Amino acid sequence: MDSPTTSPALDLAPASSSSEEQFSYIADRSATRLAREQQVGRRPGTLTIREGSLKPRLFLLSYDEQHYEEQEYSKYDELLTQFRARPELRHWIDVRGYNDLPLLERIVQDFELHPLQMEDVLNDHQRAKVDMFGDDRLFMVSRMTEFTTLLEIDDDQLSLFTGPNYVLTFQDDYHDCLEPVRQRIRSGFSQIKRKPSLYLAYAITDVVLDHYYPTMAAIGDYIEKLENRILEDRPDRRVLNRILRVKKDIIRFRQLVFPEREKIAEILRQPDEVVSAEMKMYFRDCYDHAIQALELAESYRESVSSLVDLFMSNQSNRMNEVMKVLTIISSIFIPLSFVAGVYGMNFSREQPDGDINHLNMPELYAPWGYVGVLALMGLMVIGQLYYFYRKGWLTNR
Fold this sequence. Notes:
Elements: H1 17-37, E1 57-63, E2 68-73, H2 76-85, E3 90-96, H3 101-110, H4 115-122, E4 129-133, E5 137-147, E6 153-162, E7 166-171, H5 179-186, H6 197-210, H7 212-232, H8 237-268, H9 277-342, H10 369-391
Helix pairs in contact: 6-9, 7-8, 7-9, 8-9, 9-10
């Protein structure tokens, strides 16, 4: 996952049917992935590689207060030899990509990992969580997020194991949001180089949480654009669809952050022998960040709900404008229809015996009767328009 440094360019132009179908497929992909990959009755701890996984890339970053070494290894044996040869250093072993089952099985044996934990690593749809194994080792799962230009939240799993002098991380992509941590280690004045290896686990968790804010900022920018679209233009139903999609993304984001908060709370409950009081102070800062991210998600969810109300109000106002125009037109033609109906009645002026009934439409034989009736109808229209104008019905007053 690339690190989201700026808000993505979000197109508000009407979407074609092909793009609508593409988004529908992407939105359904995450929902169906878990059900598709589950194998009923499979033995717990069975390691399976998901189809399409990337070939593993192995990185070793070794450091202490005076030294720093970073290298990518093509062979696991070379990495393991270098790791074991420098026990006085602290190490960050970073495995990116899962498509090598024998390699992963060797890592499980060499670092004494539990098969159930490695199974959670490979089935990378896990909630954020923390497990304790051994006497002082932790297994943590985090979710890295990004708001993409396809108007969806993309999230990847980051799995992390802590040891006496190392941190072991797994992820299924070559790109991540952890480059700031690497830059801090490369610098000569980082606390990471002076603190125990658990501090590196904290720094990684902190960066993952910090990248929740660009994700929410991108969503916030898009919400603002949607609001401007509703207020300035005449939005169609596609805008409403986008609003509902963003609302769905915010709910999904909240579902990602909430377990993260619970994970950090569980770390804070660990005994001091596992997580020292000093480290708990740092993780307590992460807990505050998770709370802030949740509050921000709640705020955006309320904003999106307000957008739905604003859209419906806008549609109602447009309907009222249409009904006002139709009502004015009907009001003009109702009296005209009345006059035309009166003069459309077939009452004969001459009676059968030859007498003249002077009350039966004498205007029919007036030389200016037709013109007079048209003039009367025109005056009625002008009078009505003037009355409507004075009342403000023809304007927005």
